[in-house]
């Protein structure tokens, strides 16, 4: 393998990312090298480009990916050369307080939204890798606990989607909100994450799944994912939802945009005693305003769902099995297959609210 490989590098917030030749790091003890075969364009990548979140730069973008293990370091036991794997941007240490408390998605040793230096260099200067991975690249070096083995029958493109958008959306429904059969659900924001929420809510037996987006063009995708209703977002949204839920509001609302305004819309769309689950990752300076009386008297629950409140080591193989047995269909989520150099155009499309997932295939 050559010492250089291509990756998509962002020099600073607001800049246009471009493909650069990176120098690959050595694989240290406990690490593996993965040849990336597919990587999805997730809104969290766009949030790093447009400055909604600001990790360190220069930065190799990308975190929703799958590939093949091509090299393993000393003492690696979890993976072998040739394994098909999904990358996990929140690998659990299994020893911190949160992991021992059964909340590996909150692992305190994981990088979270921060970015790491892991030995990758560009023109002899260190570069950071997004969410500890930097997966818009021909290869990734990661600790062995950041790879999860999946069956070789699972297509790389589908495997990539499992690693972030699908796990996040399905986990929010199953683990965080625990949607039950017969409940009504509103989903605001129909990208890869929101559409995964729609599909999981239907699979959980929700009677009504009301899909909401600013873009009318999302209607067909919402229906393909299993939505029973589609509503274009407007100032009259809560009234519209009430009309469709016996005047009460929905049992659940999922916010899959990452903005204060849509968190408020989700709040207002639920019934008294309902549950609002925030799945979108917003910015630090976008404040949600709710009155103290409203919080008390509406008796609603507001909580967030980080990485689907899931243990990816357990749930990714289950989701893979669901895809292989036909219980879960994800093909409608992939609306664009692109090259690394085309990712900036995919960000532009995402900013305009077009399509579901663009997937880089390598
Ligand atoms: N009301 C309703 N829908 C909206 C609004 C709004 N005010 N603003 C944007 N949207 C829609 C967009 O039209 C788009 O369809 O939200 C959707 C967001 O989809 P993507 O950009 O594809 O984002 P996705 O990758 O699904 O991530 C959603 O979850 O993990 C987080 O960081 C991620 O915050 C992001 C969110
Ligand atoms: Zn993501």
TrEMBL record:
Belongs to the zinc-containing alcohol dehydrogenase family. The keyword Metal-binding applies. PROSITE patterns: ADH_ZINC (PS00059). Residues 14-362 form the Enoyl reductase (ER) domain. It holds the Pfam family ADH_N. Its cofactor is Zn(2+). It comes from Paractinoplanes pyxinae. The keyword Metal-binding applies. This is Alcohol dehydrogenase catalytic domain-containing protein. Keywords: Metal-binding, Oxidoreductase, Zinc. It comes from the Bacteria. SMART domains: PKS_ER (SM00829).
